Amino acid sequence: MLYHGSKTPHIKTLHPNMSLHGEKYVYLTENFTVALIYTVNAIEGFFDDLGIKKPDDLQPWYSYGFDQSQIPVIEEYYPNATIETYAGKSGYIYRCEKPKALSNPTKIPTVYVTKETVATIEEIYIEDVYLEFLRQEKQGLLKIKRFENNSNQFNEHILDMIK
């Protein structure tokens, strides 16, 4: 099963778009929770929430990784970042047909790309992405690394990344 997360409703066909990796791709994942993460973009949401025009060269960004068991881990870089970013935001997860050619140039676990158009099979509406995160967390399918539990070393790493 392959999934694609989006804020856009009613997609019937996914078309390759220019990616940060310099190629036109459709991004897909085997992991429902990873697709859920991609329904809301933190940087884009910042501009939307403030009613500020987004820069034309806006690049998406997601603060997550994986633990040693390949469970997605959302990392908070400031207090209540997950709530601020995802609470009250809706999104769509699409179950998709499997394309003939898949690759993983990003090296992100469970994430694949294709240069083919991809038909969607089912649209799953998520009314509140944060509440779905909490459900996923209770089921052990997601971990949220909350800011207050970060080590000083991790917070120094965050500051270095920002610089």
Q: Key features?
A:
four-stranded antiparallel β-sheet, 163 residues, three-stranded antiparallel β-sheet, alpha+beta, single chain
Give your account of this protein's structure.
- A hairpin with a 5-residue loop joins strand 3 (17-18) and strand 4 (24-29).
- The longest helix is centred in the C-terminal third of the chain and has 11 residues, at 152-162.
- The chain has 163 residues and is an alpha+beta fold.
- Helices cover 26% and strands 27% of the residues.
- It has 5 helices and 10 strands.
- It has helices spanning 32-37, 42-50, 81-86, 129-138, 152-162; strands at 2-6, 13-14, 17-18, 24-29, 64-66, 72-75, 91-96, 111-114, 118-126, 143-145.
- The strands form 3 sheets. It has a 4-stranded antiparallel beta sheet. Strands 3-4-8 form a 3-stranded antiparallel beta sheet.
- The N and C termini lie far apart (39 Å).
Which band does the percent of strand residues land in? 25-35%
How are the strands of the biggest sheet laid out side by side? 1-7-9-2
Structural class, please?
A: alpha+beta
Largest sheet: 4 strands, antiparallel
CA radius of gyration:
16 Å
Distance between the termini: 39 Å
Number of strands: 10
Please state the overall shape, judged from the principal axes of the Cα atoms. Answer: globular
The average pLDDT is 90
Low-confidence stretches: none
